[in-house]
Amino acid sequence: MIPDAPNLHASAVAFGPGRGVLILGPSGSGKSRLALALIGEGAQLVADDQVLLCPDRGALYVRAPRPIAGLIEARGLGPIRLAARRLARMVLAVDMALASRRLPEPAERCISGVTIPCLPGRADSSFARGLAHYLRGLT
What we know:
Elements: E1 7-8, E2 10-14, E3 20-24, H1 31-40, E4 44-47, E5 51-56, E6 59-63, E7 71-74, E8 78-81, E9 88-95, E10 107-111, E11 114-120, H2 125-136
Parallel strand pairs: 3-9, 9-11
Antiparallel strand pairs: 1-5, 2-3, 2-4, 5-6, 6-9, 7-8, 10-11
């Protein structure tokens, strides 16, 4: 693992070892809320608020910086400690700053030299449920 991996302001959760979602967006856009909703749908926390990027052979892996590993912010409650994955492969980015559409156009995002699909995001439970099913369907 790269000790000085680049840091990105984002959150990440994973459904199993190879189905992670990187949640991007400005501060206050709902990244942690969406991550918590996805955890409620069966995902496991990887990192909240900051991720360390670990590209490897064309795949994008992320992990949490050590001081915040296993912590996620729940607005109104403060930080909550959860069981977390140490490292997960990201197969999708969700950008909370992109305008949501009923049928979004396919888009991609290049992160640390790795290109992955990118969808507009929303911090609500129905979007989280749909996204969970989408990620479970990936092979």
